[in-house]
Amino acid sequence: MKQLQGAPWLLTHRSMLKPNKPMKFSLLGNDYVLWQNTDGAISALPNACPHMGAMLSEGWCVTKPDGNSAIACPFHALEFDHSGCTVLPGSNKETKSLMQPLELIIQGDFIWSYGGYEPKIPIPNIMNEIAAEYKFIGVTGEHSIRTDILSLLLNMHDYNHQNGTHRELFEIEQVHVKQFIDEGLHSHAYLSQPRKKPTFRDILKNPGLLAMPKVLEAHLENFFPFMGLMHGENKLLSLKECHFYLPEADRQSRVFVLMYMKAHSPIAHLIKGNLLKLINVVVDQDAKILGKIYANTPQRIKLNNEVGMNWVRRNFESFPAVAEPNLSR
């Protein structure tokens, strides 16, 4: 995969890792195994055992006398440390590194990587700022979707699809892009979305709707190509809904959402579980529609409010450089 090399990707949040439990993930066409030892040290290696190609993520972790851990191959139980070295049966000597470890950038609970490529753009500090001020309430919406990363990004910056993909969930009647601020690979979109008033039956079914006003005033902050952030504010709570996008392969992408909250009312604590479920439904609906589109169809119709999609297309074509025109309005 040649597009977007040099971008930072958030691989996972520490809460998604269990101590000494291998986790498989894919990035830019390569598969890796990620694991965390009991002391919190995190390592990543290519997922194929250099002996006969078994998936190391199907193996187990072994704690060494020095407290470090190794990943054991499920085929022949060879144990590889964080640098890719092993000790062969009948030998007391450690081999040289047989696999190139994936370089990780660990910032608190956030595990980032450039996928083995030279960094072209920096990791923004915003997640560290959010973690310092807001309470983490969970991970939701994790999906591996059979779609290319461009189609995923276009969907996530399509301000019109709520009326179709999410029509029954939010019953948004109109979408108004009040302002779009283009800062190159960083942007802000301010939306006003009048919606139908939920019925009492709707609220009983999904109490999370209590946190949603008659008009959804959304502030979307975007970091191309890896992150979209929804800033939510109402009388019950302040919400940071952090969407992360990763290109697993040419036709496979991954998305997950980290949720942070600052409660202004005790009710906020009662509905946080419903908020996680709500966003999971949103991502599930996006995943289903993305799996049922013809991605290479020429676009012969333009709708209003496509400024976010235009921003994605421009940056995808020029990355890591920023090309004119500036789309602020």
UniProtKB/TrEMBL annotation:
Pfam families: Rieske. Residues 9-113 form the Rieske domain. This is Rieske 2Fe-2S domain-containing protein. It comes from the Bacteria. Keywords: 2Fe-2S, Iron, Iron-sulfur, Metal-binding. The lineage of its organism: Bacteria, Bacillati, Cyanobacteriota, Cyanophyceae, Nostocales.
